[in-house]
């Protein structure tokens, strides 16, 4: 039985990915991990509430693919410590569950991820990439999107303005600058599904935003 587990289904990319996965015939079991009770309403999806600070696999959970779409913002988190918990500690705790076995771990970070960055956001993402790589997971794919566009459950005025500017500037971003173009959340989700459907791949792979654009199948 082929199983997929997804964390972060209430987020911008996660909800698109869960919807796409539920429509595919490649998984016999789909489990959506959430922090509070929520019903996805999608056929074949089992919603489970978990404590992401102390996650564990229940009996029968042997995922072929684990999709980690967790993430927040500094404004929503309220502090650097709270931000790091969601964007670093939770993904690391989930990844450790996948060390021994067959699981392909998929995780979204960000363009500019760098453990040595002067910017806190990029540094946290870089720390995550570095430490996930050192776990020795059976297979790890890291997705580094540029600014992600789409309708979010909560309104973020700053991101809305940035999104408008990105749409105007994107056509002019060619060649090496193409990877900095804003990307639709559905394209990020579509690229994750495409990679999951591919039987072959590197043990550790980093996919940049422009490659996701090329893989987008919408």
Describe this structure in words.
This protein has seven helices and nine strands. The chain has one domain (3-215): Rossmann fold, CATH 3.40.50. It is an alpha/beta fold. The radius of gyration is 17 Å and the shape is globular. Helix 3 runs parallel beside helix 4 (120-134) and helix 6 crosses helix 7 (209-215). The longest helix is centred in the middle third of the chain and has 17 residues, at 80-96. The chain has helices spanning 12-23, 74-77, 80-96, 120-134, 157-169, 185-197, 209-215, and strands at 3-7, 29-34, 45-49, 65-68, 104-108, 139-144, 148-149, 183-184, 204-208. The strands form two sheets. The chain has a seven-stranded parallel β-sheet, sandwiched between helices. A two-stranded parallel ribbon has the order 7-8. Helices cover 37% and strands 18% of the residues.
Q: Tally the structural domains.
A: 1
Quote the average pLDDT.
87
Q: What structural class do the secondary elements suggest? A: alpha/beta
Question: What's the CATH class, please?
Answer: Alpha Beta
The Rg value, from CA coordinates, equals 17 Å
Q: What global shape is seen?
A: globular
Number of DSSP strand runs: 9
Seen as an oligomer or otherwise, the chain set is single chain
By CATH, the architecture is named 3-Layer(aba) Sandwich
Strand content: 15-25%
What is the CA-CA span between the terminal residues?
A: 27 Å
Number of H/I helices: 7
Order of helices and strands: EHEEEHHEHEEHEHEH
Flag low-confidence runs: 161-169
Instruction: Please state how the strands of the largest beta sheet are arranged side by side.
Output: 3-2-1-4-5-6-9
| Annotated CATH homologous superfamily | NAD(P)-binding Rossmann-like Domain
Amount of helix: 25-40%
State the CATH topology. Answer: Rossmann fold
The major sheet is characterized as: 7 strands, parallel
């Amino acid at each position: 039985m082929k199983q997929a587990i997804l964390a972060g289904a209430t987020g911008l990319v996660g909800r698109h990915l869960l919807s796409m996965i539920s429509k595919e015939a490649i998984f016999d079991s789909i489990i959506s991990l959430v922090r509070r009770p929520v019903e996805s309403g999608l056929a074949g999806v089992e919603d489970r509430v978990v404590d992401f600070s102390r996650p564990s696999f229940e009996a029968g959970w042997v995922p072929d693919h684990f999709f980690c779409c967790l993430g927040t913002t500094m404004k929503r988190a309220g502090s650097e410590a709270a931000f790091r918990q969601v964007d670093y500690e939770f993904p690391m705790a989930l990844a450790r569950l996948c060390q021994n076995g067959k699981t392909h771990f998929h995780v979204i970070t960000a363009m500019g991820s760098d453990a040595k960055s002067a910017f806190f956001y990029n540094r946290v993402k870089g720390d995550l990439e570095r430490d996930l790589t050192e776990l020795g997971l059976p297979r790890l794919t890291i997705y580094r999107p540029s600014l992600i566009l789409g309708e979010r459950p909560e309104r973020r005025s700053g991101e809305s303005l940035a999104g408008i500017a990105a749409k105007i500037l994107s056509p002019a971003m060619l060649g090496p600058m193409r990877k900095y173009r804003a990307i639709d959340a559905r394209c990020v989700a579509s690229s994750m599904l495409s990679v999951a459907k591919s039987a072959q791949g590197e043990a550790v792979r980093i996919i940049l935003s422009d490659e996701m654009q090329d893989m987008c199948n919408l």
